[in-house]
Amino acid sequence: MATKPDDTTIAVAPPEVAPPPATCSLPFMLLLAAPRLAIQMAWAALWAAFGPQFDNSFAPWAAQLIRVLGPTTGLIVYPMVSVLSDSCRSKYGRRRPYILGGTVASIVVWLLMVVVSSVIQDAKDKKAAADKLSGVAIVLYFLMGVAVNTIQAPAALLIADFAGDHQVTAFSLAQALSIIGSLLVSGYITLYGPASDVTVQILFMLILALVVTVLPVLLCVPETPYVPEVVTSRRQELKRGFVAFYDGIRYLPRVLAVYCVCFILAMLGYASYNGNKNQFFGTVFYNGNATDADKCGALCSDAQKRYNNGTQFASGTEDY
What we know:
Elements: H1 26-57, H2 60-67, H3 69-86, H4 96-122, H5 126-132, H6 134-163, H7 167-192, H8 199-220, H9 234-242, H10 244-250, H11 254-285, H12 302-315
C-alpha cells in the first residue's frame, strides 16, 4: 500500500538575541562627564573656602562635627535620589529632571552664601556679624551638600546609561575631569589668596562652571522617557527612595560590604586630612594665629597673616 509522502515542514525560528548595548562616541562621553568637573569643584570649595571659617568661628570639635554634615548627606541623599530617578516617568527622561533640580538648588544656595559672605565682609565688626550668621552658614553648608548630591547621583547614572560597553572608559574620563575640577579650585586659591578672602569669587566661579557643564547635558542628551511595566503610586516610590539607604545596607553582598567599610574608612581619613590641614599649616608650620584671621582684612597682625598664608598654601599649592 503506497503512502503519501509528508510534505509538512517545520520552520524553526532562530532564538532572539538581545541587541548589543548602545555605545557613545568620545566627544559625547566628554559632554556627559562634564558636570563631574563642576561637582568636584563644589566639593573642593566646600573644604577650602568654608573649612577655615568654621575653624575660626567654632571650637575644634564643633568644626569637625559640622564637617561630618557633608558626608552624612551623601550617604542618605545619594541612594535616595538614585532610586527616585530610576522610577522617574518624566517626558524629559529619568536623570535630567533631577540634574536640573539639583543645579537650580545649588545656584540658589551659593547665591545665599554670597549674600552671607558679603554681609560679613561689609560689617564694621566682622567677628560679631560672623557669630550672628554662623547658624545660617551651617544650614547653607548642609543644604549645599543636599543640592550637590542631587546633581551627582543622576549625573553618574546618566553616564552609565549611555556608556554601554565602555563603562570603564567613561568613568575614567569622568574621574579625570573631577581631578581637573579640584585643581581649578586649588589654582585659584594659590593665585588669588586664602579662600576666606576670595569666597565670593569662588562661589561665582562655581555657578559659572555648573551652568556651562550642565546646560549642554540638559539640552543635548536625548533621554528616552521611562515607561514602567507595573505602575506604582508616587507614595510608594517616595517610600522606596527614603528607605534606599537602609535597604542598601541590609541586602549588601558580603564582598561589597567589605568594600563599603574600606571606602568609608578612606573617606573618613580624607575628611580628617582636609579638616585639619589648614590648622596644621597655619598654626604649626607657619606659626600663625587663627583667631579672627578670616575677618581682620587689612588690619591683620603678623601672626594672622602667617596663618592666612598657611591656609593658602594648604588649600592651594599643597593640593597640587
